[in-house]
Amino acid sequence: MGELKVIDVTCALIVDSQNRVLAAQRSSTMSLPLKWELPGGKIELNETPEECLVREIKEELDIEIKILKKLQSNTHTYPNIIVNLIPFISKHVSGVISLKEHASYQWLDGNELLDLDWAEADVPILHNYLNTLNAI
Which domains, ranges and CATH numbers included, belong to the chain? Predict the structure, then answer.
């Protein structure tokens, strides 16, 4: 067995005007099929995390976002890869959500967020996000 590769991935806690967070369900053909995740994607060469996130959200959901705040990253080891997940609180600026890769999406209040079957790497980020809300 070779060493697992670490990939840097961004994700967005996209918040709407009612402070609900967008959750996206992975399609049945993606890795971690039908798990829920915070949308985002892999950082490409010479791309900042912020540039990556804006691009990925446009590609995956066809909406424009504005990044508000970076949260603490979470590194998670899956059986075949290590993901360094870099989260940003963002707001939906324009566009209507059109799913390009995902099976479904939901807008969730903070007290509903942890009810879904999330991809493991996203769970600590959700807890951290909820803790920041409670600290206000």
Answer: 6-134 (3.90.79.10)
